[in-house]
Design brief:
Number of helices: 14
Structural class: alpha/beta
Strand order of the largest sheet: 4-10-9-8-7-5-6
Number of strands: 15
Strand content: 15-25%
């Protein structure tokens, strides 16, 4: 950089962080409030990424800030391995209540850590070593959770994962106009193939699945898939784990996606939005399973931090106080507005969503090929227009909309207009 003084946060970061710490944008953010973030030049952006589905209550919600600040003044850390404290116990009590009253909770720090804990629990109580996950899944990037992640070969390159007995089945993704039950049948056949050719079901401790795939492309499965998966697990004594790190805490229009689909897992993992941006995650499982997980079989230092738990309590209050209902209403509105505004573009392969977990997928209208470069251009143009969105899915050809659950029609209308203009410009540039 030739001796020129580094002025932007991006330029300064290049000097002190490795490439593995890269970001989706080059923006340096100095303030965030509600649905908006503000860069170091004072420009405002509608944040429909929400810190990757973390700030479901919006950035710096006053109720969350107040609850966390009050807790910070009393106690920041004393160690959940040493003491019990009010927000830790109270949040667990609330989570047990909202998951039916027949569960227990273990707190950790991140979604990946929660998923590893869930698998450890399943292996411990079943005495079985094997796990089944799904193609295009994302369950984390630590050495244990990486073994469960099937969304990107780059995540695994050069690493020997800690879990070596993971098998991948097919996740159902019905094409627009296709009978969704055909996709379900293909998925279930892939599980049967695993049982016949690779692993006996009595060796499988757990099947771990995202009720809606996140990084894999915001794929919404038919309800029958999860129902039949529940049946397979019941038949073979396999524990069903729902990874709700991205779908949980209101994102799908219910507190948890398992409520959206009406299928309850044996073990549930939570993270991301659980504390509105404070680091916290949880493993929630049936009491009879948790009671067989003894002291010393799992642990950590910071899980259930007092400040994070206090923020989690405020988050639950806000969700139950109206934000979940808003997620359903605004999700329906967003999907309808996107379908209407994008109807003229043949490159739009699908618009889909559940709650405020909404996706637009792009394909070449002639060949069906992925339009990765077009999606990159669309996202760049959206950023220029003051809208932050992220991509996902194989080839990164899916644009995902995950605004805070506080979003209103005015913000959605603005976002849809910027997005439509960006799509139009990108289509013109390639035609």
């Amino acid at each position: 950089m030739g001796g020129r003084k580094l002025t932007t946060l991006y330029e300064r970061a290049l000097r002190v962080f490795p490439p593995v710490a890269s970001r989706a944008t080059k923006l340096g953010i100095v303030r965030a409030e509600g649905c908006w973030v503000y860069d170091e030049n004072g420009k405002a952006y509608l944040d429909f990424a929400s810190g990757v589905a973390v700030t479901n209550t919006g950035h710096n919600h006053p109720a969350v800030v107040q609850r966390a600040a009050e807790q910070m003044r009393r106690m920041i850390h004393v160690g959940h391995n040493v003491f019990y404290y009010e927000p830790y116990v109270q949040l667990a009590e609330r989570l047990v209540e909202v998951t039916g009253g027949d569960t227990k909770v273990y707190f950790s720090n991140s979604g990946a850590e929660a998923n590893e804990g869930a698998v450890k629990l399943a292996q411990y109580v079943t005495g079985r070593p094997e796990v089944i996950a799904f193609a295009h899944s994302f369950h984390g990037r630590t050495l244990g959770s990486l073994a469960l992640t099937g969304s990107n070969a780059a995540y695994r390159r050069m690493y020997e994962t800690a879990l070596r007995r993971v098998y991948f089945a097919r996740y159902p993704k019905p094409a627009p106009g296709e009978d969704p039950e055909e996709a379900v049948r293909a998925s279930l056949e892939s599980i049967n193939d695993l049982f016949e050719l690779q692993v006996s079901p009595d060796r499988v401790a757990a099947i771990i699945v995202e009720p809606v795939q996140g990084e894999g492309g915001y794929v919404i499965p038919p309800r029958s898939f999860l129902e039949k998966l529940r049946g397979i697990c019941n038949e073979h004594g396999i524990l069903l784990i729902f990874d709700e790190v991205q779908t949980g805490f209101g994102r799908t229009g219910h507190l948890f996606a398992y409520q959206t689909f009406g299928v309850k897992p044996d073990i549930l993992t939570l993270g991301k939005a659980i504390a509105s941006g404070f680091p916290l995650s949880a493993v929630i499982a049936r009491q009879d399973l948790m009671d067989r997980w003894p002291a010393g079989a799992h642990g950590g230092t910071f899980g259930g931090n007092p400040v994070s738990c206090a923020a989690g309590l405020a988050t639950l209050d806000l969700l139950e106080g109206g934000l979940i209902d808003n997620a359903r209403a605004m999700g329906n509105y967003l999907v309808a507005q996107l379908r209407e505004s994008l109807a003229e573009f043949q490159e739009v392969y699908d618009v889909r969503g559940v709650g405020l977990m909404v996706a637009v997928e792009f394909r070449d209208p002639g060949s069906g090929a992925e339009l990765s470069d077009m999606v990159k251009e669309i996202l760049a143009r959206c950023e220029q227009g003051g809208l932050i969105l992220l991509s996902c899915g194989p080839g990164k050809t899916v644009v995902r909309f995950m605004p805070p659950l506080i979003v209103d029609k005015k913000d959605i209308d603005q976002a849809v207009q910027v997005f439509r203009d960006s799509v139009a410009a990108a289509v013109r540039s390639v035609n």
